[in-house]
Structures are given as C-alpha cells and as structure tokens.
C-alpha cells in the first residue's frame, strides 16, 4: 500500500528552508508510529534535511546526484522508483516528501495521512493540490492544543475512491 504522509497548516504550507515550520510533538509521534518498520520514500532534499536514514525503516531516496551510502536504496530516476513500488504491493510504503514526489506519486497512492494544524505559519513550500473527488475521508481525529502541542491539530485519513 502506498501512502502519502505529511503535515500542513491552514494554507497547505509544509516547509520553510527545508524544515518543518513548527514543532508539534504529537505529529512527530504519529509519523514515527505509522512509518517505523516500513519503507519511507523521499527525494534528495528531504533526505538531506534529515541528515541520515530514518532508523528502523527502509529508506528509499530518489536522486540522480547522491552516491550510494549505507542505509538507503537509491533510485536515479522516477521510473525505477515507480517500478520498485509496483513490485512491492504488499509492503507499507510511505512517501514523506518533497513536493515533486508527492505530485508524481499521488496517482499511485492508496491512502493519504494528513496532519492539519489549525494555525498559519511562514514558509516557502506548499503541498500540491489534492483533488478530493478522488478520495474519501475515512477518519478524523481532532486534538486541542495542550502543554506539549501549541496548536490544535487533526489527523485525517483519506482512502482512494474506487474507479467507476
């Protein structure tokens, strides 16, 4: 199953200077719980922003300029990555960024996991538009701000609608 996972503010902002524009521990925990033990798929800039492969996950990186290194599976072109995804239909695969990969792999995705933060931030990177006609909202889990999480947020799960 291919899942796109991301957090965004009220205006679909997802990043600032290659980092998250917020600190939301509940979202970090949610991300870790969902992706640990599975494969995470990312572009070069996302990988570089992390600084190292994410532990306890298979790290797949799309880049034509990175060199092979321990802890990552490197794909120089999107077609090779898409082929790998197609040949692993029973694996739990999570696209974690960046914008180009979200856009390119959206048509292959089965599920979207979105953390909506009820606030606005300054930044420079926005999530590509999602055509909600293609998706059914399966669940919403709302949370109020608390002493650890400064802003209200919700975890939304969308599943792809069957084609008619």
From TrEMBL:
Pfam families: DHFR_1. Keywords: NADP, One-carbon metabolism, Oxidoreductase. Pathway: Cofactor biosynthesis; tetrahydrofolate biosynthesis; 5,6,7,8-tetrahydrofolate from 7,8-dihydrofolate: step 1/1. It catalyses: (6S)-5,6,7,8-tetrahydrofolate + NADP(+) = 7,8-dihydrofolate + NADPH + H(+). It is an enzyme of class 1 (oxidoreductase). Belongs to the dihydrofolate reductase family. This is Dihydrofolate reductase. It comes from Furfurilactobacillus rossiae DSM 15814.
């Amino acid at each position: 199953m291919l899942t796109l996972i991301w957090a965004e503010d009220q205006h679909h902002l997802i990043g600032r200077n290659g980092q998250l524009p917020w600190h939301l521990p509940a979202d970090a925990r949610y991300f870790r719980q969902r992706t640990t033990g599975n494969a995470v798929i990312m572009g070069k800039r996302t990988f570089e922003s992390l600084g190292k492969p994410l532990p306890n996950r298979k790290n797949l990186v799309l880049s034509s300029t990175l060199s092979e290194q321990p802890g990552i599976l490197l794909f120089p072109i999107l077609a090779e990555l898409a082929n790998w995804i197609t040949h692993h239909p029973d694996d739990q695969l999570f696209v974690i960024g960046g914008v180009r990969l979200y856009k390119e792999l959206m048509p292959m995705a089965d599920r979207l996991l979105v953390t909506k933060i009820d606030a606005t931030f300054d930044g420079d990177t926005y999530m590509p538009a999602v055509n909600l006609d293609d998706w059914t909202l399966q669940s919403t889990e709302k949370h109020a701000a608390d002493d650890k999480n400064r802003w209200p947020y919700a975890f939304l799960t969308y599943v792809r609608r069957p084609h008619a």
